[in-house]
Amino acid sequence: MVKMVRSTQFSILLLLLLSATSVCGSLSSNIVPSGILSGLKNRPERRSETSSLLHLKGGNPPKRVAILTAGGLAPCLSSAIGFLIEEYTLYDPQIEIICYIDGYKGLLKGEYLVVGPEERKLASILTYHGGSSIGNSRVKLTNIKDCLQRGLVKEGEDPQKVAAEQLVKDGVSVLHTIGGDDTNTAAADLAAFLKRNNYELTVVGLPKTIDNDVYPIRLSLGAWTAAQQGALYFRNIVNEHSANPRMLIVHEVMGRHCGWLTAATAKCYRDDLKAQRMLPGCGLHFERLDVHGIYIPELSIDIAAESKRLKQVMDRLGNVNIFISEGAGVDDIIKQMEEAGQEVPRDAFGHPKLDAVNPGKYFADKFAKELGAEKTMVQKSGYFARSAAPNDQDLALIKDCALKAVECAMLGQGGVIGHDEETPNLELRACEFNRIAGGKPFNVDEGWFKSMLTEIGQPFKGQHPTHPKRPGKPNAPVRCSSEQDIRKKVDLKQ
């Protein structure tokens, strides 16, 4: 039996959000790295008066649209929901909208919110908030054992079939999935399953991940904000160096396979730091607050050589600050854990749980003794950064992608919305599901990244020899975000 949560309850959710403390203004543009972010001066208009898709009127619009968010958080989920609701309402208020509660869990259980007139009117409120107003979960539909253990299906049931039948039962003809590669490809599998059973479902996904590691998407939603928020986090934490002599601070940043977020966070932080006034005569030195090492999965790390270099920094300044991606050195750590007989916990998708692997502590332990650190502190900005509301730049990108998602839904074009790196002009389009994959590495040859390493005195060692390339395209060049590219393709309304 489908569990209906009436629209009045969704109104309560929105009113609670509205009554909460307002989101602080975005940080100074100084923290936005040139070459990564565009430096939007004014927040884009959230509420539109008319649909930009009225030229598509006619034909057979979907009767019911469903929205679902899944996976880890990113600073785009609630905003994307708000923009989708707003655009569908402007285009055709007769199109019904439901939101599955807690991602694929809600789909399997038949639990959803109905978006009523009040929610449609106030949908722009969601763009001011982080998290997902409808909830997320980590559910892999092909992991029958996990779904069974969690009580999401009964013995003998196939979760994929249960989900597909629920969509049919709910009368959904368009499904918007806001998530990473796993979330969106799972939805594509559902559409394929239903098509084989003569039911047409259009799936239009939005790429959510702060790691910015989805092929062939140039920039995933939430990544800009996460870099900015990680920098804000460290702007406070760095002052702990003054609490103890010879302090080693390790800032662990999210990024399982891709170092883009770590690099961008360091760039954001350093750009902000350069804009601040110092007073060396009273002990306030730029060098003590600076980043002294940046370690990401794409680069080889010579622990011995780096220990020697950082020891000199420690002796000269009395403290060392390093930024490390949570995926840096993970393979080596897991190998050591398994050789020691330790079991490595994994999630429903088979990914090692990085909190258990704890690469930040691993590197802290490796460096602390060699550096002669009297105190070591490991701080993780991931949850702080990923739960933020989107900044201006992200908000503009999210809105453009949401509008394109509705357009593609009206045209019956499935895929994941994003600026396609494999098109000549970085076209904003629905990228085919069979081209969507995670684990896209950061391009360590980016000029701004190499310049940053030079500035902090860290030798550039080149790409890690075992770092994965794109499946099926081992020699394909990887292009990451640049200011010029994104400015051309994202309509940042001044």
TrEMBL record:
> What residues correspond to the site Important for catalytic activity?
K208
Q: What is its EC number?
A: 2.7.1.90
Give the matching Gene3D superfamilies.
3.40.50.450
Q: In which pathway does it act?
A: Carbohydrate degradation; glycolysis; D-glyceraldehyde 3-phosphate and glycerone phosphate from D-glucose: step 3/4
Q: Where is the active site?
A: D211 (proton acceptor)
Q: Which Pfam families match?
A: PFK (PF00365)
Q: Where is the signal peptide?
A: 1-25
Kindly give the PANTHER family that the UniProt entry links to this protein: ATP-DEPENDENT 6-PHOSPHOFRUCTOKINASE 1 (PTHR45770)
- Name of the protein described by the UniProt record: Pyrophosphate--fructose 6-phosphate 1-phosphotransferase
